[in-house]
């Protein structure tokens, strides 16, 4: 009887703790979501109202001028598809090339691995700069006005390679030796054993790589002259700069009403438009992050 009462009390206390934890998590999620909601609502506010009243959850006057300016040119739709394709292709190529290099430099299979590690490490400390990079890509690789310029120069990342190499080194050598004794070659060992065991690490560097491809705009500025090859980020940067310049002209003594542009609300609208796909990508990779935490917590 006493044991049953204690069991019920224990279950009741567990439920209370669970409710408290869920309430705390929900409150923390609401706090994190509030800035995003504030930006979204403010992007639909009237420019003059936003300037006069500041950021409010319910503006006194609504306007879709920022979104009309953003999508009115017709360039954004194609740029979305182009940037998404470049992000997908570039991320896949970079992850594969980086993983292959990391596997080659992991363990003790490569005789001069320390020398190659040192060479790769030097590239992280010293850079040739913008001018040698521009000459290499435009004059030697001849990738100007070519969609491959978004992918080829970024097909390998040294920092991610070192992260993957360290992750590969943590895989027990006995597993790899068992595979080799069963007749598995290096490609079989890499793609059938090492890569499946490293999905959390691959998902992590894949997300970082996708973010870098998605946010890249300098390449369009340097190497692309054809407007159909402009990425989403470059079009938005150019649009925001043009609108800001027009807004400055409107405030420099011109008659009222000559220039009316949603400069501030356009910045908020572009933030929402560009962050959306990346935010939607995380839930698909979350299970790999959780699996990585579980693997890291298992010992022995």
Net shape: flat
CATH architecture: Orthogonal Bundle
The average pLDDT is 79
For the record, the CATH class is Mainly Alpha
Describe this structure in words.
The chain is flat. The protein has a single domain (65-296), classed as MetI-like (MetI-like fold, Orthogonal Bundle), CATH 1.10.3720.10. The chain is an all-alpha fold. The longest helix has 41 residues, at 2-42. It has helices spanning 2-42, 47-53, 65-71, 75-105, 113-125, 130-140, 158-169, 173-181, 186-197, 199-214, 218-223, 232-250, 263-296. Mean pLDDT is 79; it is low at 251-259 and 293-300.
Using brief descriptors, characterize the structure shown:
300 residues; mainly alpha; MetI-like fold; 13 helices; 73% helix; flat
